[in-house]
Design brief:
mainly alpha, Four Helix Bundle (Hemerythrin (Met), subunit A), globular
Amino acid sequence: MDTLLKKSVWQQFGAAIDTLDDALTLCPDHLWTVTMWEDPDDPRYGQFWYIAYHALSWTDLFLTSTYEDFQPPAPFMRGKFPEQPYTKAQIKTYLDHCRGLAQSIIENLTDEKAYEVRKFEWMEPTYLELQLYSMRHLQEHAAQMNLVLGHHGVTGQDWIAKAREKNGLIPPHFQTES
């Protein structure tokens, strides 16, 4: 697959991940369990921490698996709530995991993999389209979280134009030339 295309997809996917990371970093402890919206199935589905977990678990699933086979890494559980909300540290560790996974997968994406069709009840996208869908999903929830933070007087959010370099994770051939 074309290097420019892969680089462009990573820069924007990484920026969406970094936007979520910023929301997590800026969230004070007293807002970690704030209800962002009411959910008729379970009020916890609308809590700040759960929205972050939800966004990351779907990112992980869309990158690596099928709906039927997906299992998030420990300590996360599919289909069950933990006894206590996941901590910010746990969620940030999961974010780092998803960030590294996304970067590696996008960097090594082949045409064959990009064109592979994935089947879900609501759509049948190619693998490449699924990653763009996933990026939009991440950005949507990061924006919602930042909106809630702003409504509670938390400032510091900033536009992220492209993926930040984290611990040297951007391979040399993905880096922007000066």
